[in-house]
Amino acid sequence: MKIITGFMPPSSGSVSIAGFDVVSESLQARKMIGYLPETVPLYTDMVVKEYLYFMGKIRGMDNSKINKRIDDVIELCGLQMYRDSIIGKLSKGYRQRLGISQAILHEPEILVLDEPTIGIDPIQVVETRDLIKSLKGNHTLMVSTHILPEASAICDRVIIIHEGEIVAIDSPDQLGNRLRGGAVIELDIRGPRKQVVKALQNLDGVRNVMRVTGENDGTATYSIDTDQSIDVSPKLAKLIVDSGWELKKLETLSMTLEEIFLKLTTTESTEN
Amino acid sequence: MRNTFYIAWRETRAYFLTPTAYIVGAMFLVLTGIFFVFQITSTRPEASVRSIIEWATFFMVFFAPLITMRLLAEEQKLGTLELLLTSPVSDWQVALGKYIASIIILYVTIFLTLYYVLLLYIFGSPDLGPVLTGYLGLLLYSAACGAIGLAASSLTSNQLIAAVVGVAILLTLSFADSVGYTLSGVVKTILMWVCMDAHLNDFIKGVFDFSHIIYYFSVIALFLFVTIMSLQSRRWR
C-alpha cells in the first residue's frame, strides 16, 4: 500500500494509477489517491476544521470548493460536534473518522485504507465499517485488513496475500465455493444412523459424509460434502422423507473467510 | 509555490500554539540579555553591537536546532510525514515550507534582541554601519543554523537526537577556526573557510563583503539539499 501511494519504491515491478506510474509520474498519481495510513496521521495540535483545510490546500483544492467539501465530509463522517475541537482531544474512533474524512476530502478516484478499524471499540468498528460501505460507488476502495469477517462484510473482491504472494483473488462467496469445489450441507435427521449414512452416500451428487454427531438412533447431525454442479438439497429432502425418517434441518453452509484463509495459507503452501 | 506557503503557514501556526518555541526563545533572550548586561556594565563598555552579535551567534548554535528539531522528526514519529509525502506535494516544497517556518521563528526572536540596540542608542551613539552589517551577519548565520537543524531533523524520528546532531554539526562548523589557527597550510585554509564564525568577523567590523554572503547562502543551499535528499531517500532502493 505504501508503494501504491508512492511512499515507498517498488523493489520490482511497477504500479500505475489511472495511467500514471507511481514512480515516474508520482505527483499526478498521488492526486488520484486518498490515503489513510495504518497509524492515523493527524497533527494533534490543530483544530479539526483547520486540519481538513490544510489537507485540502496541499492537495490543490480551491477555497470555495474546500469549504463546501469540509462541511460535506464532516457531516458524512459524523464529526459535526467536533468541528472546532483540538485533534489531540478526540477519541480514537473520532480520529479514525477524521482520518477517513481527510482521505475522501478531495474526492479521489481511489481510496486506500490501511487497517481502518484497528484499535477502536466494537461500536465504532461497526460505525466505521458502515461509513466505509457508504463510500462504495463514489470511489474505488482498497482496504487492507487482518480481520477476515471485516473483509467479507465490506469487500466485493478479496485478495489474499501470503508471504508476499497472491494466493487468491475472488469475491468472498466465490472464493469459498471454488476452494471447496462444492458446498457443505448440514442435516439434522432422526433415523437409524447406519442406513442414513449409506443412503446419503449413495445419492448422486454427494461426495462424502464428513461428520456425524449426535445419538445413535435419535437425532443426529450429518455434514455432507456435495458436488457444486448439482443442487442436491431437494433430492436429499425427498430421499429422507421417502425413507420414512424425520428431517429436522437442512442447511447449506458457506465457508467463512477464516477457513478459506487457513486452507489457502497452510495446506496449499505445504503442497507446493 | 502555494504548497510551500501552506506548509509554512501550518508550521508557523504550530510554533505559536505549542510552548517549545516560547520557552526556547525566552531562554535565548535571557542568555543574550545577561551577556549584554555584562558587557555594558564592564570596566570598558562599548557602544557597539559586537558583543550582542557574538553572543547571539554563540547561543544560536543551540537555539536553532532546538527550534528546528520538531520540523521533520515529529512528522516521522506521528506518521504525518507519510501523509505529506503521499500528497501531491514535492519533497522540495515540504523542505522549503518547513524551512521558511523555522526562519520566521528565528527572525522574530532576533527581532526582539533589537531592544538591546535600542538601549545602546539611548545611552550611547553606536555607528549605524556596523549595526546594520552585524545584524545582516546574524540573520545569515541564523538562516544557516536553521538549514543545518532542519537537515538534522530529517534524519531521525527522535527530536532529541535531531537537536543533538544539529548542535554537533554547528559546533564543529563554528569552532573549526580554533583548530585552524593551530595548523598551517591547505588544512588551515580549508578549516578557516568552512568555519561559520570566521565569516562573521567582517560583518561585525562593519565590512560588507559579498563572499561571506555567498558562503552563508551556500551552507543554506547545501543543507536544504541534504534535507530534500533525505526525504527522497525513502523512495530509493
Which short descriptors sum up this protein?
heterodimer, A: 272 residues, alpha+beta, four-stranded antiparallel β-sheet, three-stranded parallel β-sheet, 10 helices, elongated, B: mainly alpha, 11 helices, 82% helix
Describe this structure in words.
The complex is a heterodimer of chains A (272) and B (237). In chain A, the strands form four sheets. Chain A has a four-stranded antiparallel β-sheet, covered by helices on one side. Chain A has a three-stranded parallel β-sheet with strand order 3-4-5. Chain A is built from ten helices and eleven strands. With 272 residues, chain A is an alpha+beta fold. The longest helix of chain B is centred in the N-terminal third of the chain and has 29 residues. Chain B is globular and about 60 Å long.
How many structural domains in the coordinates of chain B? 1
Q: Which secondary-structure class do the elements of chain A indicate?
A: alpha+beta
Look at the helices and sheets of chain B and give the structural class: mainly alpha
Q: Strand order of the main beta sheet of chain A, please?
A: 9-10-8-11
State the shape of chain A: elongated
In terms of quaternary structure, the protein is heterodimer
Please provide the ordered H/E string of secondary-structure elements of chain A: EEHEHHHEHEHEEHEHEEHEH
CATH architectural category of the largest domain in chain A:
3-Layer(aba) Sandwich
What is the CATH level 1 assignment of the largest domain in chain A? Alpha Beta
Could you provide a short overview of the structure?
The complex is a heterodimer of chains A (272) and B (237). Helices cover 40% and strands 22% of the residues of chain A. Chain A is α+β, with helices and mostly antiparallel strands and 272 residues long.
